[in-house]
Amino acid sequence: MKEIVSHLSKDTQLKELVDVLEFPLVQTHTDGNTYLSLLRAIISQQLSTKVAKTIYERFLVFFDNNPTPQQVIKASLEELRSVGLSKQKAGYIQNITLFSIERGMEYERLSKMIDTEIINYLTEIKGVGKWTVEMLLMSNLGRLDVFPEDDLGIQQAMMALYKIDNSNKKTMKQEMTRIASAWQPYRSVACRYLWRWKDQ
Question: What is the pTM of this model?
Answer without folding.
Answer: 0.88
